[in-house]
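Side project, low priority. Logging it here so it doesn't get lost.
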Amino acid sequence: MREREVKIAYLVPGIGLDKDEISRRENIANTIVSPGTKVNILSPSTGPKSIENRVEEAFASTSHLPLIYKHSNDYDAFVIGCFGDPGLRAARELARKPVVGPAEATLHLASQLADRFTIIAPTRTAARLIEDVVAIYNFRDRVASVKSIEVPVLKIARGGETIRNIAEYVLSIVETEKSEALVLGCMSMGFALVDEIIRKETDIPVLNPVKVSLNTAEILARLGLSHSPATYPKADIDKLKHILT
């Protein structure tokens, strides 16, 4: 029996990517999922340019909610396009389709592959956000460390020699930290496919949150599974329409 087409919306919770970069990422996203699955990248009209501190995180947490409301019937699953999972729980109360947080999905998968793992953050301030998420998801005893490469997200997005330098620095962390597994704690690192460079030089698992979150969304959609309404009760849309539209 032929599998039905699955449509996934990847939600960028900010406005820091130009049209060319969005197109590049969309092309990569569609190589990650199975044939018959389509990924579209959606961007809000407002929001931060990147998410590297708690102020930007707060604005990002609501920027993509109108997109979920507008496209709730157009897609089979949604992915929050930031490793910090901004607004994830709110998004799940807004949509009856599965909404995947890259950090949540990747941390759970990493815990199946190694007892303790290292997360690579773009900046020190972003590392603080990741530490918050690690605590919320109860992974403190599994995360050996959160290491910052001190490269701003928007610079990572530009690619080039920066990506090779990042990979080399991450490999040095593997040696000094004696890491059992690595998690890329940034979606821009994921779309730069830093994991594929690192894997050539090490045999420990390297988890790319873009790949993990998109494949998780696809699996949930194909299995017909979504988050429980007992955990995420549906929001009162009538009280929110003036904000969502």
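Brief comment: DSSP finds twelve helices and eight strands in the chain.
Revisit when time allows.
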